[in-house]
Hints:
Layout: E1 2-9, E2 14-23, E3 26-31, E4 41-44, E5 49-52, E6 54-59, H1 72-81, E7 84-89, H2 100-113, E8 117-120, H3 136-141, E9 147-148, H4 157-167, E10 173-176, E11 189-190, H5 193-198, E12 202-203, H6 206-219, E13 225-228, H7 234-245, E14 250-254, H8 256-260, H9 282-294, E15 299-300, H10 309-312, H11 329-339, H12 345-352, H13 354-359, E16 378-388, E17 407-417, E18 420-424, E19 431-432
Parallel strand pairs: 1-4, 1-5, 6-7, 7-8, 9-10, 10-13, 11-12, 13-14, 14-15
Antiparallel strand pairs: 1-2, 2-3, 4-19, 5-16, 16-17, 17-18
Bound molecules: zinc ion.
Residues 150-151, 177, 229-230 line the site of zinc ion.
Amino acid sequence: MVRGGRVIDxxxxxxxxxxxxxxDGRVAQIAPSLPVPAGARVIDAEGLLVTPGLIDPHVHLRExxxxxxxxxxxxxxxAAAGGFTTVCCMPNTTPAxxxxxxxxxxxxxxxxxxxxxxxxxAAATRGRKGEALSEIELCARAGAVAFSDxxxxxxxxxxxxxxxxAIEPTGLAFMQHxxxxxxxxxxSMNAGEVSTRLGLIGWPSVAEEIIIERDxxxxxxxxxxxxxxxxxxxxxxxxxxxxxxGGQPVTAEASPHHLLLTDEACEGFNTLAKMNPPLRTDxxxxxxxxxxxxxxxxILATDHAPHSADEKALxxxxxxxxxxxxETALPLYAEALVASGAIDWPRLIxxxxxxxxxxxxxxxxxxxxxxxxxxxxLTLIDPDLAWTIGADDLRGMSTNTPFLGRQVRGRAVTTIxxxxxxxxxxSRAPVTA
Length: 433
Ligand SMILES: [Zn+2]
């Protein structure tokens, strides 16, 4: 039983002090002052937020093909440490997740080794090459929770149109990595003053915006569910805002780094600040925060992208894009969005639970919400716990993050998946009554 916490369940609107009784992996009862059953394990949650288990709809677990960066086992441990009970893994593995057989292999690996629920996002085209459709319907039946060629955009408008048409009947969302390739050739950071000073080829915001514009126009007569991944530019926020106001089935996600860091973090050729899409400007950060505050951006995702220290030690232009995010996301979102006054804790929890659950049709499985009879996936958060992000706090295989050493506030102190504790930290270790 989880006793005396502030239970926040955005799906039902509950935000009050409650006890949560867990039995057989399910939520048995949510009520004030429940009696403790004999022999029950009791977690004292006084002063803590008790929320549905957090869901990250955009992670890279690197399995199969890059086990030196991350595996399903290590990545899911990182997820648990960050308060996540469910992650959706991207298909840019080797080989790509583009067939029912590959999706099944992920399901089996996850059932044997994962510390959280893992759902695969299937590639929309074979081998993520953008040339031929993958087996969309069979992949949907085999458990894909969305489609994406993430890591790459679907560059051809003709292929994009066919992808949207093929996905529409499945009811699943297509997630686009928005990067017009001819505008970003050889680019490794935001186009601006800093890229000029460093002598690096710049990556303009329009490369992202033009793809979103194109896709929304293509989709206007198709009506598939279209999702913008890791949006980085203020211009993109405006395009999504207009499309949603016009009733189009468009959603968008923001990532912690695009809410907190600018391209100045690339100074000194710091490869830990090399991201795709790139870190941009203060004005972009303000626009993305405003987009979250206004309800234009409804999804938060880490884009957890592990790389080895050797790879990130390469010269800036040769180093891979991306940073890890699962262990550090929650306090960074709290800083960027709650401490800044953009949104409150209940809305932040919605963006991390029921909203991504809906994006990936996981709400139909009872995820992203707390209700009696539903799965007992819970995250206990100390919103006031101040800590410094250190290498010891990282549970995955890679440590590529520019946030090491940052002082933050707020932490997932206990993570529970199907009634089992998958992570606990600090002074809030569970005690048995
Ligand atoms: Zn991407």
